[in-house]
Amino acid sequence: MSTAGGRPVGRGRGQRGAVLGLVGGTGLVLLLLAMLVAVAALTFSVEVSGHSMEPTLRPGDRLEVGPFGREDVRRFDLVEASEPGRGTRIVKRVIGLPGDQVSIGSEVAAPRVYVRPAGSADVYVVDNPAWHGRFGTDTASCCTADGKAAMARAWVTVPPASYWLIGDNWGGSTDSRVFGFVAAEAIETALTFRILPAGRFGPLTSDARLVLQPP
């Protein structure tokens, strides 16, 4: 082994090579892990098609499938479900929970969705900012016994293990006003996070709320 100034030269070079090799190997592992995470995210996700959830969601948005199931669905959650009678996968917003009473009135300039939560006598109106300006000519009242749009306003109770869903694009959404209540077993998952496009990456939030109506 050659020396310079009393210090071995070859050993230092060998150590540097080992360090570089270790760094390179670690980088490769991290790259593979990142690729695995990306593939998993795309595999366990839902891609939005159509315009029924605008402006909240747009065609091509990819949403992460939540880790919890239908038993954790809450009011105003976005859910992926199977459309009754057709089996088509849809994404809608939960308005009515099991045991709630719901109705839609068109007695004002724009339709208003009313909810009596299960076990309560109080009446609330749904304030969903996404609906504003999106009613168009779709102002039918609700509901029939199976939760569909009706000629006149009427209260209907959401059956056990069922939900009442409406899209954020009021005038451009096929939802419970058309196909009625959605069984809990048809709810695939709640959707809480957008992974694509990168510019809108992040949690899905909602300003929808219930506003108590005076007696």
In short:
Helices cover 18% and strands 31% of the residues.
Query: CATH H level of the largest domain: which superfamily?
Result: Umud Fragment, subunit A
Element order, helices and strands? EEHEEEEEEEEEEEHEEEE
Q: Per the principal axes of the C-alpha atoms, what is the gross shape? A: globular
CATH topology of the largest domain: Umud Fragment, subunit A
Question: What's the architecture of the largest domain, going by CATH?
Answer: Ribbon
Helicity, as a percent range: 10-25%
Percent strand equals 25-35%
Average pLDDT reading: 84
Question: What can you tell me about this protein's structure?
Answer:
The protein is α+β, with helices and mostly antiparallel strands. The chain has 2 domains: 3-42; 47-212, Umud Fragment, subunit A. Helices cover 18% and strands 31% of the residues. It has 2 helices and 17 strands. The chain has helices at residues 10-43, 176-179; strands at 3-4, 7-8, 45-47, 62-65, 78-82, 89-96, 101-105, 112-116, 124-127, 141-142, 149-150, 156-157, 162-166, 182-183, 187-196, 202-203, 209-212. The strands form 4 sheets. Strands 3, 4, 5, 6, 13, 14, 15 and 16 form an 8-stranded antiparallel β-sheet that branches. A 5-stranded antiparallel β-sheet has the order 12-7-8-9-17, with no helix packed on it. A hairpin with a 6-residue loop joins strand 5 (78-82) and strand 6. The longest helix has 34 residues, at 10-43. The radius of gyration is 26 Å and the shape is globular. It starts with a strand and ends with a strand.
